[in-house]
Amino acid sequence: MKRILLLQTGGTIAMQIRRDADGRLNNLPSDSLEKYIPELSAIADIECLDLFFKDSSDMNPNDWVTLARAIESNYDAYDGFVVLHGTDTMAYTASALSFCFKNLTKPVIFTGSQLPLSVIRSDAGRNLINAVQMATLPFCEVAICFSDKILRGNRSTKVSIGDFTAFTSPNHPALAEIGIDIHVKHALRPSGNAMECYPAFSEELMVLQLFPGIKPARYIPLLAEQTRAVIISGYGSGNFPSSGDYSLIPFLEACMERNIFMVMASQAVFDAVDLEKYSSGRIARELGVISSGDMTIEAAVTKMMYLLARYSSPYQIRDAYVRVLRGEMTPVHTS
């Protein structure tokens, strides 16, 4: 029987409803999971590690490092890993961990739920059973298991607050679908090299989301000395206002003067940023802005945080950012 380490970080799945008048939600210890889901013991030999109990909105890069280190230190002792995590920032943490691990040879499966495990109609049991089952398979991905689908972690984004199908992978097919059988279709293959772990993230970046009426010049004073990169969440294929008081161009020029790395992402979740399509995009490219391709905003942000921590040279960061590191984007083929 495969040995699986279940790592607890908190979230809705880790809550239980108190049987008193206040109805507050409390943390559910991981070692009590089999009380609610006795089927787990038939799937794998599961051991639990409670790292912390956090609402996922409180997760930060220090927690990503703690989680990555916990997996690294237990890597040889287990066949796979399941991470219990709140849904709100699960895609950020899964993306971050995907960049931490190079040459991953074992599954790291994130799961959670929309309702606490102790609620009768909860989706927690099904998600956890599926996640543990996936963690026993020869599957070398950091993935999210939710609602009978396995999605690449750095391709996933949360799209629903109230539906059990909380996540989607807008620009990459599901890695596996779970029905009567589990069909793995699009997973990465092992490289054959030893796993390496680089758990470090820099917070020296800024994300600027455009909206009609924004005056980007107001944000120039926020470009402090510790800002090394800016990710702009633009419109469509990377479009933005380029004339008058609402022009983004003075902001881009201020970034260029300060040697701040600039990336253009999109508020549209499907398809890729193309800076050649419109005149504003071509201006941005001339000012040194690069495209995030078809990455999710979660992947675009965590990839940059990872690279800022690994490299000091802007050229190394730029070279690595436009390359596919962990399956997080579709390669751009140029003629």
TrEMBL record:
Record key words, sorted: Hydrolase
GO molecular function: asparaginase activity
Every L-asparaginase N-terminal domain range: 3-186
Leading EC class: hydrolase
Domain spans labelled Asparaginase/glutaminase C-terminal: 206-319
Active-site residues annotated for this sequence: 12, 87
InterPro entries: AsnA_fam, Asp/glu_Ase-like_sf, Asparaginase/glutaminase-like, Asparaginase/glutaminase_AS1, Asparaginase/glutaminase_AS2, Asparaginase_C, L-asparaginase_C, L-asparaginase_I
Residues engaged in binding substrate: 56, 87-88
Pfam families: Asparaginase, Asparaginase_C
EC number: 3.5.1.1
Keyword Hydrolase annotated: yes
Gene Ontology biological process: amino acid metabolic process
Family, per entry: Belongs to the asparaginase 1 family.
Stored PANTHER family: 60 KDA LYSOPHOSPHOLIPASE, L-ASPARAGINASE
NCBIfam families: asnASE_I
Protein name per its UniProtKB record: asparaginase
Species this protein is from: Cyclonatronum proteinivorum
